Amino acid sequence: MKKLRDKTKKKYYHLRRSYSVPDEEPKRLVIWKAKWFNNADSPVMLMIDDLANAWHSTTGKTKWDFGGDWGGGLQREGSTIRFLKERLLKDFPEAKVTFFAIAGKIRLCTNTEQFTFAEPLHFTDASRRFFRDLDKDDNFEIAYHGYSHGTPGANKEDFVQEWNGFGSVSEACDQISKGKEIFNDVLGRFPFGGKYGGWKYNELADESIDKSGFLWWCRDWMSRDVHDRIDDSYYDPQFFGDNLVVALPSTVHGFFWDVKQIDKLIDKKQIISIEEHIAPLRPDGRTQTPNIIDDINELRSLFSYLQKKNIWYATGTEVAKYFVAFSFTTIYDIKQDSFKINYKGRVKEPMLTLLIDFRHIRDRKPINIITPDNEIIKCTYKNKLHLANVKIKNGRYKVKIR
Q1: How high is the pLDDT of residue 137?
Q2: What gap in Å lies between CA 317 and CA 68, rounded to an integer?
Q3: Among the listed ranges 60-69, 188-197, 289-298, 360-369, which one has the minimum average pLDDT value?
Q4: Which residues contact 393 (CB under 8 A, 6 or more apart)?
């Protein structure tokens, strides 16, 4: 039997050699889209809710109690923004934060339990300048969280979250429009995305978001399950509405996160979106959880763990734009030295990461991508693949050796 096997091996040895090393070059490149920018395994968003031009003091003084600044302290000593920068972002400058802000006067709790100070974002030149400067920082984004957050009543149980209180789509759109105008006055632009207050909304809410021109929205909160009891698609972005608004999932509790949860998200290439609030102290005496002040040590541990991973720190808008680029781009007519792109998304010229197998060159010679309007994109080389971050335009792209 052994002699027969040896004879067979000898007989077909020359064929095996001929198929292992092709005599001819491949006739085309191999190109595909990276799921996330720069071929990261997962994007990371730190989401902080309830930023507002408000603060609270339990003693009625002219300054907030510790943990009582919701943004109205601006950047003064003892403010929550200074706390965030000094206690977290100073040591993790790569982190990016998406703040969800209330445009007008924030109204929480009951009719008799309100903030010591609460005004719209554009109440003074100082507040307008503070929130605009915050949004202009490349590591920050201010997104929409409502006009007032909701309608209080006589008791805590009577409070109605903003998107639960609208009786019609037009009523919701009118109030959103008022909030957007404040955003435009403060930031010099309309908000790109946002989130429902308290994760509460009625059957009219999604249509109001779609009609109001938002690119993306956070609708649902579900901490990442590590036991596969929930379908994976729940933790991926989705589209909703006639305008295909990107629904971004919220997947990590800033205090209760664990390594298994983070590793599961990275393994599945899903979004690590970390849920937090701006401050713990509420006017009704209850603690707002999770919050960045009480959770600061857990957040530091989380970002320290993430430093060892292949991730992309991003804002909500950056994640949404990339998802649109990935979803609406087709690569076709691929040749040895060129390919075409067809893009039909709503975002103008979004960034997309391309992975190119150029191994028929037989070495690691660097290559450039020439865009349809002759812009030159230098590719990086890693793991036998060339990586290119390109601004998507319709037309033919050329591949050239440098």
Answers
A1: 97
A2: 28
A3: 360-369
A4: 341, 343, 349, 371, 372, 373
Q: For residue 155, what is the DSSP state? A: S
Q: What is the pLDDT of residue 5?
A: 61
Alpha helices in 103-248 (DSSP H): 125-136, 169-187, 205-211
What's 121's DSSP letter? T
- Residue 50: phi and psi, rounded to 5, are 70, 25
Domains of the chain in sequence order: 22-37+321-401 (no CATH), 42-309 (3.20.20.370)
H helices of 45-124, where? 80-84
Scan for tokens 């629904």, then name that residue.
247
Q: Which long-range contacts (CB under 8 A, 24 or more apart) does 225-230 make?
A: 226/258, 226/260, 226/261, 226/264
Q: Enter the tokens of residue 225.
A: 């399950």
Which of 57, 315, 110, 331 is CA-nearest to residue 194? 315
